[in-house]
Amino acid sequence: MHYSAEKTTKLYRGEAEGVVFLGWSVNIQSGFGANANTFLQQLGRWVAATTTDAPVRVGDVDGVLPNGTHADGLDELTALLERWLAESDEPTIGDVGTFGGRAWLHATVGGQPVVLNADTKRAAIEQFVDHARAGTATLRVVANMKGTINKVVFRPDGTSTPGWYCYIPTPLDAPQEL
Question: For the chain, which terminal residue's Cβ has fewer other Cβ atoms within 10 angstroms, N or C?
């Protein structure tokens, strides 16, 4: 999110013991441009979308999902990604910048936290939504290319989808279905 021509602020969302914490990397009281109406309106929309069931208006945040957006369950994740597909024409769900391989969208599925990276591609999201709506999306944790069991796939046969960068934060000892 931009708050002046030269500055960008990062938005953060955390959760511990059932409490949601929101933060951002700008001092609203003293940052130049940080108290401008445009910034405050964008921040308000992000807070509302992050803390309520209100639809995320992705067009308000440069067409990408706000960093730290959270979905509870497969149905909510699917609905959120469907809205993103309908409201944005961006090629990825997040701001890739100089490194897209960072956690962007967070979800809890089957009691397990999962993250989609910022560089998750539109075509992969379309395939996920198609499988979810057909009832064939089954989230499974499998080994990544290095052998660590933390990669999340959705195809019924357990194969990977190009551009789908979804992981669990803590690797498992054995593959499992979520």
Answer: C
Domain of 166 in residue numbering reads as 67-177
In a domain, 62, yes or no: no
Number of structural domains (the chain) is 2
User: Going residue by residue through the chain (178 aa), what tens digit of pLDDT does each one get?
Assistant: 444 445 556 667 777 666 667 776 665 555 555 555 555 556 665 665 565 544 444 444 457 788 888 999 999 999 999 999 998 889 999 888 877 788 999 999 999 999 999 999 999 999 999 999 999 999 999 999 999 999 999 999 999 999 999 999 999 999 999 9
Q: What is the pTM of this model?
A: 0.67
Q: Does any domain span residue 60?
A: no
Helix 73-87 and helix 122-134: axis angle, to 10°?
130
47 part of a folded domain: yes
